[in-house]
Every structure is written in structure tokens, then in C-alpha cells.
Design brief:
The structure holds two protein chains of two kinds. Chain A is mainly alpha-helical. Chain A has eleven helices and two strands. Chain B contains 14 helices and two strands; from the N terminus they run H-H-H-H-H-H-E-E-H-H-H-H-H-H-H-H. Classes of the chains: A mainly alpha, B mainly alpha. Chains A and B meet through helix 4, helix 9 and helix 11 of A and helix 6, helix 11 and helix 13 of B.
């Protein structure tokens, strides 16, 4: 079962790379969830759906307006972020002060609507999105494996975005306001900070991260209405394993679990779909608050 | 008004008991009349989903735990029951019991893993666990993947009653639904149920009063899982198949919608909600793919404006505890 077939180094590195790519999506998505959760205290069930919308916006920008990948990389998060801000302003803010479960239910309903609308218009199959010209060259030879340019770009870029977000929240003045408003919104308001606007922008920013992940994923996984629904449960598991409310925790867990999933595909492919959930179960038994989480 | 709230709702001579009784009689009459008005097959399906929603409501309505993965209990019991009836050739009631035992066991494992967490965390863990069960059902050979288990024999209940006769099947399904419904009613209106409500309202206080909160929650979780399994197993006998739909994520969402729409924490709410949602799917079938969009919109509207649900609003207007 484990060593039944010889595993070439090529296979191993190849799957590790795929794992690292998936890990970057997990990291970006769980980071967005963590940012939103920290400020709004809700779990954004629409996160997967908005990740999918991000990919579709990139597709529309290319085929509708002729704007290429690099424009989409900026444009899609901005558009989806604005959509997120609108959702927060018109719907989510009405739930303030209620049980956070209502936020989960509302965003779940939104996810249903968004995903199904796209499915009705575009069918269940994927739309192709080409790798941007600048990154489509032949794979780079690293000596032990070939690394396609675009995949290298995804890993480096998403890691950079993740760590900038961490830096922004943990090390800058703006981040300090944000963290203060999480702890005690009333007091921060008394200092003249517009907390409701901060909440709206935080939600927009969190969803923008999801849209960014969607754009990055478009050339690799195609643009598909079901792409968000497929990933959201895994991302939830990643968040549970890492522990809610830890920015760095969600980034690290995302990357590591992506690689673990990749390794499982090499050694025991039958379990590759479930391995993250099994890890979640084990973590819950040992550390119910998650690896990086504070005690609830 | 009796001094003991538990005794009050169980006693037909108190106001609460009478209110429950009146609605119960109405429900009995409706169940009796329904097959003459609507398509019996549809009513039986609705009854299975109503039981499923009642089981789910036991957790969200009375313990305050939102499980977003209850399809894992419905679906796994449905598969096990279908397998037991078709491959092992068990009588339907034994096949159903096998399914219930399986979902109860699964509930025990899932409960141990999730019960220590609260609120949103609990919801996310149940999502992930049910997704794991879904993938297991996709891969496991006995579920036959995308095909599901088809042509489940209905057999003879207790070796006597031929369930392939529509009337017999209807009575059988209605009896199981009523059993499940009354089991939830009994559990909620017992000292056990009072402790659950105490935990929902103020968990630290319940702990300080000396209750082992985790055990009560786990017991409620297992009971809810087993009853959801009862619904799933019965459904497998009624529709004569078990498929991935029953274990999929959309089903977990649907039961949340049913309960929310009907009224969380009300006894009759989940029944009404299930009826509405199943009718929506049935009678809006002409809109095809738009049904899910409509469902999502109803979800959003409910959360924003209608959090008590249909029965909750009626109960409030009449000042009835139903």
C-alpha cells in the first residue's frame, strides 16, 4: 500500500509543488477568513463563492474588456472587495449584536445564491484561462525538477501577500487600530476612529484576498462555478487546525497542509481528499483550540 | 400554572399541555388526510425530512449548537439501511435499526470531536467532518459511488406487513415520524431537556451548578444524530435508494433552512419548515435550476427579517408555546 509502487523523485517533487500551490490558496483564503473573523466575529461562509467570483471577474476582464492577467490581479480584488463592502453595508451590518451564528447563516444563503447563479449561466464545466504571456515560458530546470514559471510565481506572490498582510495587521499603526477595535470597539470609537467604516473595509479586504486567490487559481484550475464550494470545507478545516484569530497561524497552517495533502497523493492517494479532515480530528483531540489558537 | 415547568407541558390539563395537544391533533388529522389530497410519495418524503429537521432542531433549538453537517447522519444511515435491506436481506425494521445504530455511533465519534468547541467553531468542525464522510461515501465500494444503492427492497415489516403496498408504507412512515417527533418532544420536556436549555442560556452557570455540561451536550448530539439517521434510513426504504445527495453538503444546508424557516426552538417549526422546503422543490421544479437560488434568497430573507420562523411568529402572536 505505502511502498507498493516505486516513487520517483520527480513524482514526489511534482506533488509537493502541487501541494504548495494548493497551500497558497488555503493560506490566502484562511487568512481572509481570519481577518474577517477577528473584526466582525463571523465566519464568512460566502468566502468560497467570492473566491470563485474573483476568478470569473478575471475571466470577464480578459474576454470582455481585453484587460490581461496583470490588470485582473489588481482589478478583480478591487471589484470583489467593493462587492464585499456592499454586502457588509447592506446586509451584514443588520446582524450586529446578534448571535454570530446568524452571520454564518446569512453568508451561507449568499453563497448558495451566488454559486447557483454562476452555475445557471455558465454551466458546471470550466472555462479556460490562459497563463499570462510573461510567465508561460518553458519550465525552469532546478536540477532536481522542472518548475513551471507560473507556478513559481503563484507561490512567491501569495507568500508575499500573506506576509504583507501579517505585517500590516501586527506591525503598523493601522493594524494597531484594527486590533484595538477588535478588543474594544466602543473605546476606539471614543478616540474618533470610524469603527463601522473600518468593519466594512475589513470585510472588503478579507474578500479581496479570496478574489486574489481566485485570480491566481484561474490559469491553473480553470474558472469553474463549483471551485469555491469544493474548497470551502477544506479551508474551514485549515482554520480549525490553525486556530481562529491567529493571522500567522492561518498562513503557516495553509501552506503546510497543502504540502501534506500533496505528499498524501504520492504515498496513499486514496486518502488525499480526507487527510486534512483526519488531521483536524487529531488536532481537535489534542488541542481543541487549534495549533496556534488561544484557549476559547 | 404549575410550579414545575416540565410537568406543565407534559400535562394535558395545563395551558401549555393543551396548546401542544390541540396542534398535535391538527397535525394528526393533516397526516391522515394528506395522502388523499397530495401525492402520497411526496408526503412520505416530506415526513422523512420533517423528522430530519426535528432531530436537527433538538441541537440548534434546545442546546444552541449549530451543526452544519447533519447530512452525514442522514446519509450514512440511509446507505447502511439500503445496504442491509438489499445485500443482507434484513427486514425493513431491522435494516432501519442498523442504519440508526450506525448514525448514532457516528454521532458519538463526531460529538466527542466537536462538542468541546462552541458556536462558530462547532459549526465549522461539523462542516469538515461531514465533508470527510462525504468523501468516504464517494470512495467506499458498498455505496456504489455516483450510482448509489438502487432498487432497495421494501420487504415486509416485522415479517408481516407488505411495505410495497402504498397504504402500508404510508402508515409505516407516518408511525416512524410520529415516534421520532414525540421522542424529541419527550426529550425536550424532561429534566434532561431543562438542563439542555439551561446550558443554552448560560453554560458557565450550568457548570457552576454541578452539571457535567459536556456529557449532556454529547447525549443530545447522539440523540439528534440517531434520529436524523432514523429519518435517513426510513427515507431509503420509502424512495428505495440511497445516494450521494443525502450525504452531501447541500443537504446539511437544507435542513438548516427548514428549521430556520419553520422556527428554531419550536416543536412544530421544523415540521412546517420541512414541508415548505420540500413543497418548494416539488412545485417550483418548473424553475429547474433556479430553485436553489430561491432557497438561498429565502435563507437570507429569513436571517434578516424573520428569525423566529413561521411557527415562532404564530406562537408569539397567539402567545402559545408550540
Amino acid at each position: 500500500m505505502f511502498l507498493g509502487h516505486a516513487i520517483t523523485a520527480q513524482q514526489l517533487y511534482g506533488q509537493l509543488l502541487v501541494g504548495l500551490i494548493n497551500g497558497s490558496f488555503y493560506a490566502l483564503l484562511s487568512l481572509g477568513l481570519a481577518v474577517i473573523f477577528g473584526m466582525l466575529n463571523i465566519v464568512n461562509f460566502a468566502h468560497g463563492a467570492l473566491y470563485m467570483v474573483g476568478a470569473f471577474v478575471a475571466y470577464f476582464l480578459l474576454h470582455g474588456l481585453g484587460l490581461n492577467y496583470w490588470w485582473a490581479l489588481i482589478g478583480s480584488p478591487l471589484i470583489v472587495g467593493a462587492l464585499g463592502a456592499l454586502i457588509e453595508r447592506t446586509l451584514l451590518y443588520r446582524l450586529r449584536g446578534l448571535d454570530p451564528l446568524y452571520g454564518l447563516l446569512l453568508t451561507f444563503g449568499l453563497a448558495l445564491v451566488i454559486q447557483r447563479l454562476f452555475q445557471n449561466y455558465f454551466g458546471a464545466s470550466g472555462l479556460p484561462y490562459d497563463i499570462p504571456p510573461g510567465l508561460s515560458g518553458p519550465p525552469r530546470n532546478l536540477g532536481f525538477m522542472y518548475l513551471p514559471n507560473y507556478r513559481a510565481w503563484v507561490i512567491v506572490f501569495s507568500a508575499a501577500v500573506c506576509f504583507s498582510t501579517w505585517f500590516l495587521i501586527e506591525k503598523t499603526k493601522l493594524g494597531a487600530y484594527l486590533r484595538a477595535a477588535t478588543e474594544n470597539p466602543t473605546l476606539v470609537r471614543a478616540f474618533g476612529v470610524n469603527v463601522p467604516r473600518m468593519i466594512t473595509l475589513t470585510y472588503g479586504f478579507g474578500v479581496a484576498l479570496a478574489a486574489l486567490a481566485g485570480v491566481l487559481a484561474a490559469p491553473i484550475n480553470q474558472v469553474r462555478p463549483g471551485m469555491g464550494a469544493d474548497i470551502i470545507a477544506v479551508v474551514f478545516a485549515v482554520v480549525v487546525i490553525g486556530g481562529m484569530g491567529s493571522i500567522l497561524g492561518s498562513i503557516v497552517t495553509g501552506f503546510v497542509l497543502g504540502m501534506v495533502e500533496g505528499l498524501t497523493k504520492v504515498f496513499y492517494p486514496e486518502a488525499s481528499n480526507t487527510v486534512i479532515f483526519v488531521i483536524m480530528a487529531i488536532v481537535l483531540l489534542i488541542k481543541p483550540a487549534g495549533l496556534f489558537g488561544r484557549v476559547a | 400554572m404549575s410550579a414545575n415547568p416540565v410537568a406543565a407541558t407534559m400535562n394535558p390539563f395545563t395551558r401549555e399541555g393543551r396548546e401542544f395537544g390541540v396542534v398535535f391533533v391538527i397535525m394528526l388529522v393533516l397526516i391522515g388526510a394528506a395522502p388523499f389530497v397530495a401525492y402520497p410519495f411526496f408526503v412520505m418524503q416530506a415526513l422523512c425530512f420533517a423528522l430530519f429537521a426535528c432531530a436537527f432542531n433538538l441541537l440548534i433549538g434546545y442546546v444552541g449548537l449549530l451543526s452544519f453537517g447533519h447530512a452525514m447522519f442522514l446519509g450514512s444511515a440511509s446507505y447502511v439501511c439500503a445496504h442491509a435491506a438489499k445485500v443482507w436481506g434484513l427486514d425493513p425494521e431491522l435494516a432501519i435499526l442498523t442504519g440508526v445504530a450506525c448514525s448514532g455511533l457516528l454521532g458519538l465519534v463526531a460529538g466527542v470531536l466537536s462538542i468541546r468547541s462552541q458556536g462558530i467553531y462547532f459549526a465549522m468542525i461539523t462542516v469538515a467532518l461531514s465533508q470527510m464522510i462525504y468523501f468516504f461515501c464517494v470512495e467506499a465500494p458498498f455505496t456504489h459511488g455516483e450510482d448509489g444503492i438502487q432498487g432497495v427492497p421494501q420487504g415486509r415489516a416485522f415479517g408481516l406487513i407488505d411495505l410495497s403496498r402504498p397504504a402500508a408504507l404510508y402508515v409505516f412512515t407516518a408511525a416512524i415520524f410520529l415516534f421520532g417527533f414525540l421522542a424529541v418532544y419527550r426529550a425536550v420536556n424532561s429534566p434532561f431537556g431543562e438542563i439542555l436549555k439551561a446550558i443554552r442560556e448560560n453554560e458557565p452557570r450550568a457548570i457552576s451548578l454541578g452539571y457535567r455540561v459536556a456529557r449532556y451536550k454529547l447525549a443530545a448530539f447522539v440523540l439528534s444524530a440517531a434520529l436524523a439517521g432514523l429519518a435517513g434510513a426510513t427515507k431509503a426504504i420509502v424512495v428505495q435508494n440511497a445516494s450521494l445527495t443525502d450525504v452531501g453538503f447541500a443537504m446539511s444546508g437544507e435542513v438548516v433552512l427548514m428549521t430556520l424557516l419553520g422556527g428554531m426552538g419550536t416543536l412544530y417549526g421544523p415540521v412546517v419548515g420541512a414541508l415548505v422546503v420540500v413543497s418548494m422543490q416539488n412545485y417550483l421544479a418548473q424553475f429547474g435550476q433556479w430553485v436553489t437560488v430561491i432557497q438561498g434568497a429565502v435563507f437570507v430573507a429569513c436571517v434578516l427579517t424573520f428569525r423566529r420562523g413561521v411557527v415562532g411568529e404564530i406562537g408569539k402572536a397567539l402567545k402559545w408555546s408550540i
